[in-house]
Specification:
The complex is a heterodimer of chains A (410) and B (533). By secondary structure, chain A is an alpha/beta fold. Chain A has twelve helices and twelve strands. Chain A is 37% helix and 13% strand. In chain A, strand 3 and strand 4 form a beta hairpin. The longest helix of chain A has 26 residues. Chain B is mainly alpha-helical and 533 residues long.
């Protein structure tokens, strides 16, 4: 495992600079900088990172990982099926969408795992509700409000001081991070932590956050969080400015977000879980081109991200996983699109994920009454594997005793 | 009970008046402070509640039309092309109307002469939560909001009935079309757990039986309203077959048999379920507890809660009776309750506009801002609404709150909200061939600016009018000390810390004239102190 001591040195230099302004460094800041010197994520047993990639809107798994040897697929999708000859074959049954050539290379390099046939019992076909189920890890018939990563932070990361254990690039905090003690930072853009008015303004901000007098508990909590803002702002600004990445990313939102995540990981921010979204998968009509474009962006961005981290020596501490609230109906609809479905596939790369195909092929002939797939793997058992085998925690604490980690995945 | 009300005190302090107004009226209006310091606490509370109950209701947004018409019905002979057109146009209209509904409500929050009613409407929006994300129909969300406003300080039994028989709620919690053959328990569970009684104050059998009693509700056109005589496919998505959003009982779907709920037996329907629910002894304490939290009151012994529950019971389930007890309780004014409430993002923004008399149009950009701070109107995170309190605050959301001055003083998009990359535009894949790819990307880079190239602040979505002379009609105080004390008193609900006052004074002495005012305001807006009420 490569550990870049340079970044820690950089941080120490900056925290010295803080003192050089002639201000009292709050105790909290000092503590953070000292523990940062010891490990990227102080208070956690290792420096592993999880990157969650949400494919919002319900990705059509059957046109992503195409069962080109299955006649039922071609019968169900006379217009939308991917032609046999153009599928990027990965075995004699299935292969990737033709626009995912970058990801196919990654697969051939032995760097990609694909989990097929993932879903949950009593599937809900509402985007809103099914997203809730995936984000909280709750059974379909329960309404949980805390996210699965939020619960992991609450249960297993009590000793971690970082105010940004979770970091999301987006404009609305994912329910995945909702916790009793929120420790997720959501930002559309790292400029979130830039304040107009230069050094003088920063000095004013520091001045109103000093622990100069006794204050009531709520005000004290806010003042401490305000100090976190000032700490985080330095760390993120430095990482984004100083960290160079090597891979080429497309200029679009999602690709740029993953590049930013790569920089933040390489800069060893005290962040355990990152979250990025690629939206637009709800293709009820005219699916062909828009889906191809999204799959291409996913493919290019993931591949660039994996190669980038590999180049910078951070891939072995980073696991990336995609998910989507549901797959699409097996049969195409009359508008050149697909309607909401159930079971789906997930991509995984990096860390100790085991490359190759996991899970059984979806059975396109044995469908639910409304024409949807019956899942094989409960997504919660994938979460459980991530929690136990990657984040080294007791998954039962987060997901309950009845969810068993899916074996041989990570 | 009289001995524990503040009414027994002949006078109350200006600070106490400010504390009350900061919490229940979004901002501390100097004229209101002046008026209420002349009255007792209880007289004040009664006056404010009366105003909220009696003030005329706002006119609905212009696009609300009664009865609502489903513009995306799919008939047997609707062609796919025709359907796509209707569906797309309807979706666009819903999006625009939802944006306008937010604009409309925010204008009420800032301009209403009875801000309390909006504060309570916001409470009920989180309590009886429904999301446009699932409901999809903008007008259904308006109906729900209008009922929550109409009964904001009214009778809880009436409000509960309105919320059960509410189109948006029926869609959100799958009560629509609940069939006696397999009654949907989702609604019954949330009715007990989240709307009226609290977890563990019912058992599974009560849920099952209540679900039977609530079966048979459908959404339909209003009675006597002519319907198109064209068949729709009964298996099609409800969204494309609904004739209206008016609740009606379909006897064929309703389970008319005997049920046992909370130990009482009868052939119960909707009315009886509501009556049985509000009559449960746990209903009052449950609602009282939620109001105590919403208004940030420290009640460690549960004494205020018990008194509120009593008042609820005695008054026949009046919400105003509970609020009267809460706001006149000594506990409301205790040192532990002062500065305990963390403002919601909407209260923060609307309050700032009220305090600074700023004119702000609630554009989609402003909506993105409150969403990023954790609160999007008509889209609560889930059926439990917004948990509030400390969950509003993380380092990301606090940083966003600290950028409030970007909006209010500079008419700029708050720092950190621009997208990182550009929009792709038309769905054309990037060529695989390296040279062609380079050419395409270069073409895009030279194209019209968007995404990362957009100038922050260039957007019309963040145009705010703030007038320093209007803030000080009698002129800006000459002395920096006088100015900062006036602003601190006007903007903060609690007495300013010495270090904050010192920092404000330093800023004031650095700047002359109107800039002195805006820079001190800028400082105050980005303090921990400004987040609380």
């Amino acid at each position: 495992m490569t550990i870049s001591s340079l970044n820690r040195r950089q941080f120490m230099r900056h925290s010295t600079a803080l003192t050089a302004w002639g201000l009292t460094v709050p105790a909290f800041l000092k503590q953070t900088s000292e523990s940062l010197a010891a490990s990227p994520i102080p208070g956690l047993p290792d420096d592993r990172v999880l990157v969650l990639v949400q494919l919002a809107g319900g990705n059509d798994g059957l046109n992503t990982l195409v069962p080109y040897a299955d006649d039922a697929y071609y019968r169900s999708r006379p217009n939308l099926a991917i032609e046999r000859d153009s599928v990027l074959r990965i075995d004699d049954h299935c292969g990737l969408h033709p626009e995912m050539y970058a990801l196919k290379d990654l697969y051939d390099e032995g760097q990609l795992s694909i989990v097929q046939n993932v879903g949950y019992p009593n599937p809900n076909l509402s985007h809103f509700r099914s997203t809730e189920i995936w984000e909280t890890g709750s059974p379909a018939e329960k309404n949980w409000s805390e996210g699965w990563i939020g619960r992991y932070f609450d249960h297993a990361c009590g000793g971690a001081q970082s105010p940004m254990l979770g970091l999301q690039l987006g404009d609305r905090t994912a329910q995945t991070f909702v916790a009793q003690r929120p420790r997720c930072v959501t930002l559309s853009n790292p400029e979130l932590f830039e304040f107009s008015g230069g050094e003088r303004r920063l000095r004013d901000l520091h001045a109103v956050h000093q622990a100069a007098e006794e204050t009531p508990p709520t005000l004290d909590f806010l003042r401490r969080t305000g100090n976190d803002v000032l700490t985080v702002s330095r760390q993120i600004a430095d990482a984004v400015r100083d960290q160079k990445t090597t891979a080429e990313y497309l200029p679009f939102h999602f690709s740029q977000a993953l590049q930013t995540v790569a920089k933040l990981i390489a800069a060893e921010l005290p962040t355990r879980v990152y979250y990025v979204s690629l939206g637009g998968f709800d293709h009820h009509a005219n699916q062909e081109n828009s889906h191809a474009v999204l799959l291409q962006e996913l493919s290019e961005a993931l591949t660039a991200f994996v190669h980038d981290l590999q180049e910078m020596g951070h891939l072995d501490r980073t696991l990336v996983m995609t998910f989507s609230e549901f797959g699409r109906r097996v049969a195409e609809n009359r508008s050149g699109g697909t309607d909401h479905g159930t079971a789906n596939m997930m991509f995984m790369a990096g860390g100790t994920s085991r490359p190759g195909l996991h899970g059984s092929q979806p059975d396109l002939t044995n469908l639910t009454p409304d024409g949807n797939l019956n899942h094989q793997i409960d997504f919660r058992s994938i979460y459980a594997a991530v929690l136990r085998d990657w984040l080294s925690t007791d998954s039962a604490q987060v997901l309950g005793n009845d969810v068993l980690p899916w074996p041989d995945l990570i | 009970m009289a001995t524990i009300e503040k009414s027994t005190q002949q006078t109350w302090t200006t600070q106490e008046v400010q504390h009350l107004l900061g919490r229940i009226e979004l901002a501390i209006a100097p004229s209101r402070v002046q008026r209420f310091t002349q009255m007792t606490c209880l007289e004040t509370v009664d006056a404010i509640l009366r105003e909220a109950a009696e003030a005329p209701l706002p006119q609905p947004p212009s696009w609300v039309q009664e009865p609502w018409v489903n513009t995306e019905r799919r008939y047997a002979d609707t062609t796919p092309e025709e359907f796509r057109g209707k569906h797309g146009a309807t979706n666009r209209r819903y999006r625009e109307e939802t944006a306008d509904l937010r604009r409309w409500w925010f204008a009420q929050m800032v301009d209403s002469p009875v801000p309390l009613r909006e504060v309570m409407t916001l409470f009920w929006h989180g309590h009886f939560a429904s999301s446009i994300g699932k409901v999809l129909i903008s007008q259904a969300m308006y109906h729900q909001n209008a009922k929550q406003r109409q009964l904001a300080v009214g009778n809880f039994r009436d409000l509960l009935r309105e919320m059960v028989l509410d189109g948006a709620m029926m869609i959100y919690l799958d009560l629509e079309d609940s069939d006696r053959k397999s009654p949907n328990e989702n609604f019954a569970r949330e009715l007990f757990e989240l709307f009226a009684l609290g977890v563990d104050n019912y058992d599974q059998a009560d849920i099952r039986e209540a679900a039977r009693a609530l079966s048979g509700l459908i959404l339909d056109a209003p009675e006597d309203h002519p319907l198109p005589n064209r068949p729709t496919d009964p298996t099609d998505n409800r969204r494309f077959t609904r004739d209206g959003i008016t609740p009606r009982l379909d006897p064929a779907l309703h389970d008319a048999g005997s049920k046992t709920i909370f130990g009482t037996q009868g052939r119960f329907g909707v009315e009886e379920v509501i009556e049985l629910t509000v009559s449960q002894p746990t209903c009052g304490p449950f609602l009282a507890g939620k109001l105590i939290d919403y208004f940030g009151v420290d009640d460690p012994q549960g004494a205020v809660q018990a008194r509120m529950a009593d008042a609820f019971q005695v008054s026949g389930f009046e919400i105003s009776a509970m609020l009267r007890v809460l706001w006149s309780a000594p506990e409301f004014y205790s040192p532990e309750s002062r500065g305990k409430l963390i403002k919601s993002p909407l209260a923060l923004l609307a309050g700032a506009c009220r305090q600074l008399e700023a004119k702000l149009e609630f554009t989609p950009g402003i909506n993105r801002y409150t969403t990023a701070m954790g609160q999007e109107l008509f889209n609560p995170p889930n059926v439990k609404g917004w948990p509030g309190g400390k969950t509003w605050i993380g380092s990301g959301t606090l940083a966003l709150r600290y950028h409030l001055a970007d909006v209010l003083l500079d008419s700029q998009e708050p720092s950190g909200m621009s997208p990182l990359g550009r929009d792709r535009g038309r769905p054309v894949p990037v060529p695989k061939d390296p040279q062609q790819r380079r050419q395409m990307l270069q073409r895009m880079a030279g194209g019209p600016p968007d995404g990362a190239q957009r100038e922050r602040g260039a957007s019309k979505e963040f145009q705010v009018q703030l007038s320093v002379p209007r803030l000080f009609p009698e002129g800006i105080p000459e002395e920096p000390e006088e100015l900062i004390d006036t602003l601190l008193q006007r903007m903060l609900s609690i007495a300013p810390r010495a270090s904050l006052r010192a920092a404000a004074l330093e800023v004031a002495t650095r700047h002359p004239g109107q800039q002195r005012v805006t820079e001190v305001v800028r400082l105050i807006l980005a303090t921990p102190d400004y987040q609380i009420a």
